[in-house]
Design goal:
570 residues; alpha+beta; six-stranded mixed β-sheet; 15 strands
Length: 570
């Protein structure tokens, strides 16, 4: 099969239909929604560049080692195609798609498939504007019944093969459908005259963009590159913002030895992510496995081919998965981290998981160990322990835990971990003053008892569509403009709370109300100072407000500090 650097789109989707392209299971699953598919087709119609695609036709000996999957024709967003349709690579002639899966899958679904039971239709009488800013696109996903009610909507597979001989009859029949319910002859004629030229132009433009112009660009990886080199290519490729991590690539190697691990990894990840609240992935699972099973944290293909590691993973992964699920229950219930926003480093969980595995304590942490783990976790966040040399930190902590567990399995080794942090970072082991402002949102999450991304005014809004923001209790604009309070006094933890973005926007810099919710709003001294500040703000009493605001802010700040020091018993 010959692939040129420039290809016509329709030629490529026909090759996909014939299984000429496949997706190596290194790649993640398909993730685009219908809006992104529609924008892709619209971009092609407008002549916008859609980026190059990277493919590879590997040697037979390599192809036999790579598990690949076909493109999906009838896509169901709820299905797990990565698991269900995986099959070994074969020696047949096909190209592996290294970069561009999302775009090619979208084009293929448009012409030859469906998305959640709906097919892609083109609005034949659409007037294409020069600007796409209004997002009024010519394409829509419709059910068969919906399409019947809208005769102007034509499935794109019905347009692509129209030629000069068939176009006249096609347009004539289409215009008859558009005016079938109109009895007035003059009105029919007017509509025909108005729409005929537009429909002809749209058909010509569609065929030109998808079946004449060679607008699809391919970068073809050299056939004789070895597997390690192609892994390096994978790692450097960025597909529309979806970066393939090194562990994703290495996982492909692991699956050659342990095909069942893909399903197990997926099951674990789905369980610990609690829907969309966390974003654990294969990267985390492999990193944790390497550390716990004595392979050191740095990734390499050689490690995943190591028989001792494979044996440990095969015999002990279920234990590790159990510990992970218990650990995440502890993270949510005890550490009060209820979404990924406050999980400053997923790697920071690995030493706790490591201790649970080595000590045999597979249940949810509790008692003194729970308190020590909580202390370690938050101090690692505040101190940015994993921001540099993450692998080295994990390896050193693994050694500490291994040595200490030999002496005492019952207790999480917090003393040695404290010593390690001090020695590595050359900083005293204390809650420093600057933590309260540099990590304001983390502090607020702790004292609030863990924050969900929920909008009380719209509780059905999905958490993945909401964004938590640090919000001023007393808004910045009136404080700086009307009362002359300095920015540093306004932008202060004592005047912050955490809310989802819609709440922040609805507030609109107004004077806060007595019913506003925030940490400390029911504590006597803070509540009275807050109400006094509201009254003096409303009365425009500058001196009184400055005094009342500072009293409220500092009182609440001190209460937060007391709560944090109690939460972290050090």
């Amino acid at each position: 099969m010959d692939i040129q650097p420039n290809q016509r789109i329709y030629d490529v989707v026909k090759i996909i239909k014939q299984d000429g392209f496949k997706i190596p299971n290194i790649q993640r699953g398909y993730e685009w929604d219908t809006d992104r598919i529609i924008k892709l087709f619209d971009s092609v119609m407008r002549g916008y560049p859609i980026g190059a695609l990277m493919i590879w036709n590997p040697p037979k000996d390599v192809l036999e080692e790579i598990r690949a999957r076909k493109f999906v024709d009838n896509y169901d967003p709820a299905a797990d195609y990565l698991t269900d349709t995986v099959h070994p690579g074969s020696t047949g002639a096909y190209f592996l798609v290294l970069d561009g899966q999302q775009r090619l899958q979208s084009l293929f679904l448009g012409f030859f498939g469906s998305y959640n039971g709906e097919r892609l239709y083109f609005k034949s009488d659409y007037v294409l504007t020069e600007s796409a800013e209004n997002e009024n696109y010519a394409f829509e996903f419709l059910t068969a019944d919906e399409a019947k009610e809208r005769p102007e909507m034509v499935h794109i597979s019905d347009i692509i093969n129209i030629n000069n001989k068939t176009k006249f009859d096609f347009v004539k029949k289409l215009l008859e459908k558009l005016t079938a319910n109109i009895e007035d002859k003059d009105t029919k004629i007017a509509i025909h005259e108005d729409k005929q030229a537009v429909i002809h132009q749209n058909i010509d433009l569609f065929i030109e963009k998808f079946n004449i112009i060679q607008s699809l660009l391919f970068e073809i990886v050299e056939k004789d590159l070895d597997y390690e080199s192609v892994l390096e290519v994978f790692e450097r490729v960025n597909s529309g913002g979806m970066v393939l991590s090194r562990s994703d690539l290495l996982f492909c190697t692991l699956k050659l030895k342990m095909q069942e691990m893909e399903e197990k990894f997926t099951d674990t990840i789905n369980s610990i992510n609690h829907g969309y609240r966390y974003n654990f992935d294969t990267d985390f699972i492999i990193k944790a496995s390497l550390v716990i099973f004595d392979q050191k944290a740095e990734y390499s293909v050689k490690k995943l081919k190591d028989e001792a590691f494979v044996a440990a993973l095969r015999t002990r992964y279920d234990q590790m998965s159990t510990c992970l699920r218990q650990l995440l229950a502890w993270v949510e219930d005890v550490a009060k981290i209820k979404c990924s926003r406050f999980l400053r480093s997923k790697a920071a969980l690995i030493p706790i998981l490591d201790y649970m595995m080595q000590s045999g304590k597979h249940d949810k942490p509790e008692g003194p160990n729970s308190n020590f783990m909580k202390e370690y976790l938050y101090m690692s966040f505040f101190r940015r322990l994993f921001s540099r040399g993450q692998d080295a930190v994990l390896d050193q902590m693994h050694n500490i835990i291994s040595e200490e567990v030999k002496k005492d399995k019952a207790h999480f080794p917090i003393e040695k971990i404290r010593e390690f942090m001090v020695k590595r970072q050359k900083l005293p082991y204390i809650i420093e003053e600057h933590y309260y402002n540099t990590d304001a949102e983390l502090i607020l999450n702790i004292v609030d008892g863990g924050v969900f991304q929920i909008d009380p005014a719209d509780p059905k809004a999905h958490s993945k569509d909401l964004k938590l923001e640090v919000d001023h209790i007393f808004p910045r604009t009136p404080l700086t403009r009307d009362f002359g309070i300095a920015d540093k006094d306004v932008d202060h933890l004592g005047n912050y709370r955490l809310v989802v973005l819609p709440i922040n926007r609805r507030k609109n810099a107004k004077v806060p109300t007595e019913s506003m919710s925030f940490y400390g709003d029911k504590i006597g001294g803070i509540e009275s100072a807050y109400n006094d500040a509201i009254k003096s703000m409303e009365s425009k009493s500058i001196d009184d407000f400055r005094k009342d605001f500072i009293k409220f802010r500092d009182g609440r700040y001190n209460e937060i500090k007391r709560d944090i020091k109690e939460f972290l018993p050090i």
